[in-house]
Amino acid sequence: MRLGKTGHRVLAVLGNTVVAFLILPILVVIPLSFTPGTVFDFPPDGLSLRWYQDFFGDERWISAAWLSIRLGVAVAITSTALGLLAAIALTRYIKKGAFLVRGLLVAPLIVPPIVTAVAVFDIYVRVGLLRTFLGLVVAHTILALPFSVLLIESALRAVDFGPFEAALSLGATNRRAWRMVVLPGITPALVASAVFSFLISWDEVVLVVFIGGARSQTLPLRMFEFIETQIRPTLAAVSSLIVYVIAAVLTISYLRYRRSISSPDRT
Amino acid sequence: MKKRGWQRRTRRRPHRDSLVGLALLLPCLVVVLLFFAYPLIGVFVRSVSDPAPGISNYVEIFSSRAFRNILRLTVEVSLLTTVGCLVLGFPVAWYITTLEKRRAQLFLVLSTAPLWVAILARLYAWTVILGRRGLINDSLAVMGLVQEPLDLLFNTRAILIGMIHVMLPFMILVLYSSMKGVDESLVESADSLGARPRQTFVRIYLPLISPGLIAGSLLVLIMSMGFFILPAVLGGGGDITIPIYVQTQIRLFKWGIASAMSMILLIVTLALFALLTKVFDPKSVVVGGSRR
Amino acid sequence: MSKSIPSTESRSLQPSTGARIEIRGVRHSFGDVLVLDEFDLTVEPGEFLTLLGPSGSGKTTLLRIVGGLTIPDEGSVIVGGVDMTLLPARERGMGFVFQNYALFPHMTVQDNVAFPLQIRGISSDQIDRDVERALDLVNLQGLGARLPRELSGGQQQRVSLARALVFNPAVVLMDEPLGSLDKRLRQYLQNSIRLLQKEIGFTAVYVTHDQEEAFAMSDRIVVMHGGTVRQLGVPETVYRSPTEHFVADFVGDINEIEGVLRESGHGLVIEIAEGNTLMVPPYLSRSLREGDRVLCGIRPEMVLIQEEPMGSPRLQATVELVSFHGNSYRILSRLRDGRRFIVESSSSLSAPAEGSTVWLHWDEEQTIVLIPPDGQP
Q1: What ipTM was reported for this prediction?
Q2: What is the reported pTM?
């Protein structure tokens, strides 16, 4: 529903203000990350890269970031692979109980993270997975699986199997027809699943607080412990780096999207 | 749904197919059952058996004033977050629906961009803004408006600001999609039948987007109650919510009470979620015709 | 159909006098696309006028401009002597029926129809009476408590009609209201709408791309294409004497044969295949000269199939396919020069055998003579 001219202007002001409220606080860390002092001074007296050096020069930061990246990649692969298998089972083989299985796989999405953390902590203490890389991978896979299963399953259901049948009728083997018809159809979902899984793991703190530790300290966990103990602008440098990456990714994908909607072959 | 191609083959060998299906599901099921469902049941069992069998943990929670305060704070903060997100999210979502495609896309990207930034980066930003030597206090001091820095951080209000900031993108997404689903010809129709914009808004538009309003609110409410990191970072010593309490009790190895508190949180969450699925029931969702 | 059509006895809404609609110099574009170009049109009070055209011809835009849902870039809309160009839709008091019905999904049928009355602050007793009568009028007695999604498409469209009529508008605008219904239901509702309109007397502007619907319902038809009027007239004239190739082709099937103008002893004639000549219609005699090329159009149902060469003009043809359509046969034949020629003949006559040679004969006066779309006379 559209408003009149005045109404629309009011709406525009409100809309822009709220979007500014969402974006600007995040950008605050960028000028702070270049500040030469230990606290944020306004106006800043000069530019400095010392907090970036602080980050890149500190073995603990680097190893935390490296651990998070390795963990994210492992979770992306595990969750997407398991999700693909489950999605195939749910679309092709399982009739009875599919609802139940789906409910079980999606449950970690609904259960509050703190409750999951308590449960996982409990079992890890008993089986000795506490503060291990494998333990982190398994825990994060549980959190990422709902997205993977839902994404891939809906992609599988949307695949038009007409060409698949046609390929079979023209003499293609089942596997070849799969690779030619089904795989291209679900590739975007597989990519989305991997990206989502990576991001979920990359940004997960609650479980890590329970099951991570000094030897398995992810970047978010280090940030969390750092933020609790000191507000040195090193965190500003870390946050800024994260913002740079995200901004670059979002800008590129937005521009690609814009190009794709303006290109004629989409119609 | 029409079964085509390889989906159709299931009819021929039901027994073999369910075995294959089970085999495909096995890795998922092992992980989720063993490391999620089973210990979750364990949490429930502990809540009624540690330190002694019975419901003593629950009795303690509901009879003690301190516990009731924890519950109240959790619910209060979550409800206020929900209201805040509604109030702020509504105009944004509405504004985006009135924009042409490209600008709408840009605004959607901007308003959901925070979701992609690591939560700790966002929280750190708020500590920088609200802290005693933070952006707001510095600016106020430079302008000579305050002598002493204001205590903006480490209190319930800081939690609230942070929660709204974190949850708002979700609310905007849900509201936007429900507003986008309103058939413009219904609004035009009301217009042609003589309704003033306010009448159209109250009698047509609002009822049509109400499933979105309810769903968005429930979603924000559910997620807000489970927040642990955010109140831990932005809240003060007195701001103990259920998740924070659970963590401190685990640290003290008081498994029974922590488990009971977890169960309470879980049950409330599930109840709200059941309500949410009811709102999203396909039969209750009103759908207008598609427009030209 | 067995369903009864509203009769005069069930008349309820006050007969209103329709208003005259004058559209003057309306021009409108969306972005770079010009949708309406210098559009002029007058709709007489109480007239049922149909805007007929393919999609993209600007007919819906014109209707929306009359209804106040779109403000034109230029030009004016005068209704009942009042310039309404800039008036919002809600102040125009016109009934608007949408293609997708646009019923409020969260309101019952009763509430939907009552909506315009409530907006106007009418007493609830009066509203109940008016709604009941309006539902009577469209034959939906007793369905007031239903929700729109519990009704069939045809019922929904009738609710939409009742809602647009209940406040006695002097003008009712309809945007392809029957577009998504099946054929029989469409014919039934065409009659219902037309009878209601005659009875109540409102001015109706109706948009459709279906020429049969336009013929069946209208006092006059405006054939639109590319944002301009291509022909304006009563249905019979538009069908029988289209003024240009686009109109001739759009409003019905047509067989096209090329002709050349020749001087004969008695003046200009049109020479077509197989030595046939046709006379030049009087309205074209001034603009054509010897040597000009024209297109002669013959409607399939105007042609008589004969087994022996008789009459003039006539063309020899081979029957390729005969298809039976209940009340008619459609005969696909091929002329000697290889062109396809379609004939529609009553199924009470016997159909020719496929593969047989026949002669196609028609009344020379029924020929539609057109200046070719590309060539100049």
Answers
A1: 0.87
A2: 0.84
